[in-house]
Amino acid sequence: MQYVVDADSRIAFYMGDDERNEYIYKYVARRRYNAQRKFLNRGLLDDGTLYVARFDADGTGAWLPLVPGTVGVDGVALRDNPNFAGADDAEVQAKILIKTRMAADAVGATMMDRPEWTGARPRVGGFEEVEVYCTLTNNNRRGTGTTVNAADGSTAAGSARPPVDAANPREDNDYGHIIRWREDGRSVAATTFTWDLFVQAGDSQTTKTPLPTNDYKGQHRGRPGRQRRLRCPDGLWFDDFGRLWVQTDQAGEASGDWVNIGANCMVCADPNTGLTRRFLTAPPRSEVTGVTMTPDGRTMFVGIQHPGEDATAANPTEFSSWPQSQWALKADGVTSLPRPPALQRGRDHQGRRRHHRQLTAARPL
Is residue 240 within 8 Å of 295, Cβ to Cβ? Predict the structure, then answer.
């Protein structure tokens, strides 16, 4: 979940529902955020409006309010839909908030390819827009049929077989993509927005048979002369300098669709140009998830989840012994720490200084 406070002190929370064919939401608090007297911000999540996103083919979109009076695609207001019927609108609203996926089905929101993390681009360096990004990890059911979630909300989660659409343009979307949108009027309370696809992930060396809407090679910028390999974006976070960090979550054993890709990784992307560069690679059979940085930008903390998963209790280090495998006793008797591959190649002090200079040089976008 990502919160954004706009220039008018309105606050909204953006979130995805990580399942195939599910939705992107935002919650807009009724009261404004108080930056001076922060104790007054208690209760901001108690009174507001929950919206779900519809991405239209012309690059515009709408936030559809999930409230009793919203009319669904079948012409029936949610308060009159049997799934949300109640003694009064307060009870109807409670049921909408419990059966949120069903309500999103009913109002005709856009089914997405596993919406995961959301992140808002910092308004620094003259950038003033409210611009939000969401990772769409993958969806092997996209384009495999013509069924969509039923308007009455009766479709079981993830069971639809939706056709491709403008916001999810590839059938059998193995490698995923990242979508972004800008709120109209630079207001988080806007009910309309414009959007585009920031990146479509893929494997530039794949030998998979291309489909009419999917060559599996992706559309993302990498370093000249290098193979472009980005897959299954999951974690997403902007640092205070405006750099976008993306973490991946796919099968980490480097087989099948991942044979040219290897383990999961974390990349850094420039939101201005789309240029993407790999920053670190994870241990085998692990996921990179979670990241933060000290305010001066000199130290980063990155989460590594379940290294060596699928090993048995009898042989827990069958696939990975990380982080133990990263610890070593140096000549001076001091134990070294786990570090990303870039630092493993230069464990001496000079190597660490080189790495720091590279990171610092990439700071301005």
Answer: yes
Range name among 56-65, 121-130, 243-252 with the lowest pLDDT average:
243-252
CA distance 62 to 190: 9
One-letter identity of residue 180: R
List the beta bridge partners of residue 180: 133, 196
- Render the burial of 87-117: b for 16+ CB within 10 Å, e for the rest: eeeeebbebbeebbbbbbbbbbbbbbbbbbb
Amino acid at 38: K
Question: What letters, b where the CB count within 10 A reaches 16 and e where it falls short, cover 285-316?
Answer: bbbbbebebeeeeeebebebeebbeebeeeee
Task: Tell me the one-letter amino acid at 45.
Answer: L
Nearest alpha carbon to residue 283 among 301, 268, 266, 264:
264
DSSP code of residue 43: T
Give dist(CA 96, CA 103) in Å, integer.
Answer: 6
How many whole angstroms separate alpha carbon 51 and alpha carbon 64? 5
pLDDT in tens, 196-236: 999 999 988 888 999 999 999 887 665 554 545 678 999 99
Rounded CA separation 109/53 (Å): 6
Q: Map residue 90 onto helix, strand or coil.
A: helix
Residues whose CB is less than 8 angstroms from the CB of residue 27 and which lie 6 or more positions away in sequence, other chains included: 12, 13, 15, 45, 48, 49, 50, 51
**53-69 b/e (C-beta count within 10 Å ≥ 16 → b):** bbbeeeeebbbbbbbbe
